[in-house]
């Protein structure tokens, strides 16, 4: 009788463990996710990153991330559900600028490993987006470059620097 209870306990423990994994995996941050167009790592020795890609998604970026960032800037635009770029900061940066250059109306969403979201839209005279902020913590960031209208495909260059 005791061996039957032990076997039942083992089976139930195993099933509960599997259930916990099934529940936890979809709720984990997708930081390890691949990027559509590339990755870059910044450090003191390599403080500038340049990447390229193209807009063209039709998924609302605010629906993926947030309607507003931590400073209450509106998050706008359309892109792909997968981030366009992965940025790894190998150390803290007191300030960083993330700028899009495309000659068209772009938007920008940057999400840190801690969940902090930074959003950018027009940079004044130009329609290209940028995020200029302070206090960037070391870690992995997901970057989406979006377009103001769904499905609008534009090539761009992304520059990240202090």
Overview of the molecule:
This protein has 162 residues and is of the alpha+beta class. It folds into two domains: 1-30; 35-161, Jelly Rolls, CATH 2.60.120. Helix content is 19%, strand content 39%. The protein is built from two helices and eleven strands, in the order αβββαββββββββ. It has helices spanning 2-27, 61-64; strands at 38-42, 49-54, 59-60, 78-79, 85-89, 93-101, 106-112, 117-120, 130-136, 139-147, 155-161. A five-stranded mixed sheet has the order 1-5-10-7-8, with no helix packed on it. β7 (106-112) and β8 form a beta hairpin. The protein is globular, with a radius of gyration of 20 Å. 33% of the residues are buried.
Please write out the topology:
Blueprint (H helix, E strand, L loop, with lengths): L1 H26 L10 E5 L6 E6 L4 E2 H4 L13 E2 L5 E5 L3 E9 L4 E7 L4 E4 L9 E7 L2 E9 L7 E7 L1
Globally, the shape reads: globular
Q: Low-confidence parts lasting 5 or more residues at pLDDT below 50?
A: 14-31
- Rounded to an integer, what's the Rg over CA atoms? 20 Å
Q: Quick one: biggest sheet?
A: 5 strands, mixed
Q: Output the strand order for the largest sheet.
A: 1-5-10-7-8
Strand content: 35-45%
Give the number of DSSP strands. Answer: 11
CATH structural architecture of the largest domain: Sandwich
Structural class call reads alpha+beta
Share in helix:
10-25%
CATH class of the largest domain: Mainly Beta
SSE arrangement, N to C = HEEEHEEEEEEEE
Number of structural domains: 2
Multimeric state of these chains? single chain
Separate helix tally: 2
Q: Quote the distance from N terminus to C terminus.
A: 69 Å
What fold name goes in the CATH topology slot of the largest domain?
Jelly Rolls
Mean pLDDT: 85
């Amino acid at each position: 009788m005791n061996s039957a209870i032990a076997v039942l306990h083992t089976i139930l423990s195993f099933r509960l463990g599997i259930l916990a994994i099934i529940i936890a995996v979809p709720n984990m941050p997708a930081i390890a996710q691949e990027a559509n167009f590339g990755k870059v790592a910044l450090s003191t020795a390599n403080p500038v990153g340049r990447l390229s890609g193209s807009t063209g998604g039709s998924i609302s970026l605010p629906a993926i991330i947030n309607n507003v960032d931590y400073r209450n800037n509106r998050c706008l635009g359309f892109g792909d559900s997968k981030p366009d770029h992965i940025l790894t900061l190998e150390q803290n940066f007191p300030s960083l600028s993330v700028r899009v250059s495309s000659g068209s109306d772009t938007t920008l969403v940057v999400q840190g490993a801690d969940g902090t979201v930074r959003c950018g839209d027009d940079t004044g005279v130009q329609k290209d987006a940028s995020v200029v902020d302070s206090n960037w913590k070391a870690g992995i960031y997901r970057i989406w470059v979006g377009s103001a209208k769904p499905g609008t495909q534009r090539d761009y260059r992304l520059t990240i620097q202090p």
